[in-house]
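User: Fold this, then the next.

Assistant: Folding the first:
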Amino acid sequence: MTYDYDRLRTELATGTLLDDSRRDIFRYAKLLPVAGLDKTPPLHVGGTPLHHAERLGAAFGLKNVYLKDDGLNPSGSFKDRASAVAITRARDIGATVLACASTGNAGSSTACMCAAVGMPAVIFVPQDAPKAKIAQLLVFGAHVMAVDGSYDDAFDLCLRVSEKRGWFNRNTGHNPFTREGKKTASFEICEHLGWRAPDQVLVCTGDGNIISGIWKGFRDLHHIGLIDRLPKITAVQAEGSAAISHAIHQFQTAGTAPRAHAWKDLVIQPVHARTLADSISVDKPRDGIAGVRSVIESGGQAVTVTDEQILEGLRLCGQLSGVFAEPSAAASIAALKKMAQAGSINEDEHVVCLISGSGLKDVDAARKSVGDPIVVAPHLEAAEEALRHQGL
């Protein structure tokens, strides 16, 4: 989606572009496809902190590492940004039911926003979706359809049912309003940094919609003149779910200039996704071309990490920054370490890692990342002995 950037530049010059009465994503309503603010959900979406993670950065020899902690959104994930804009659009056009396919986060986000406004939500999930995310769906009152198959199977079934019943389909990569919601994280990052773009942004990537939304946000700000340069965007994927990364590497190896490339002709080969990072486990990325384009146009790169590296990233993020990330979000920390070791990040660069979801979404993975260091101390002497053994 494009906007009347000339008009927006005028509003910027007159100080009327941003709504200073708000600190959620609708502070940027003039840069969003919403008719007004009367149909927005009554929950505070966005306005999440950007932490300067000095201890975490120092562990990798970096001075300016920032964590965008979107696990603090109402449903505990970045996806609330997309759902808030999508449900506003749905209500603007008089839709009565919202449908969504999800491995968990998009579904729980949709259910959360629908519960807040009293709209029925129907969520299609693979049967192996994490229990904590399924619990959220049920608590929010969603109608849950468990599909005997993958996320892609759930996606396709959701499309067919929504088309037959005339429901508003929020599916990522299908509904353009999701990208518009996700771009608001870029607005907040730049505003937090004094309307300066960071040098690099690391984005956990599954179907390509988050990373394309992040890139869209930076480009919108650049069109208006709120930032004077664009950051490099890194797509972070699990090795077991790396369809977009494979396409990026092939594209970069070919050395074709972006302007000469016909994006519509780009073919992204599906994979058989296998990773513990369920939120980025995708066979066929539905917004893959836009994801690849975001990286190529920004001059960024694709980085893949193993499940073992993701678990280490989860532990390091918690112990060195105090931010509890789910596995898909922790992939960005694993990639940060890998890039720092490879010398592809300079120590003075301002680097943002997107923490897209709370670790409470997958406590089994969190426990797996640290083992079981709990000490049984039935009395004072046992406690003292254990503490001495741990160097305390």
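Now the next one, as you asked:
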Amino acid sequence: MTLFLSAISSNDLVSALIWIIVVGVIFWLLIWLIGYCKLPEPFNKIARILIAVVAVVILINILLGFTGHPLIKF
């Protein structure tokens, strides 16, 4: 059985780290904005759940990009 090892270049790692930081700041600002606007309770929870789902999908897409098979190609 052959074991395939792939190395992640430092450029790809730095690029992914920058993407994660930028996306994290954007989603943190969205969550802060929802709290600042004081949406009614059911809409507040729904908005937070939608933001969390989108953030997780983007994070998974960034991590799958290292394998060469991202969910969404930009």
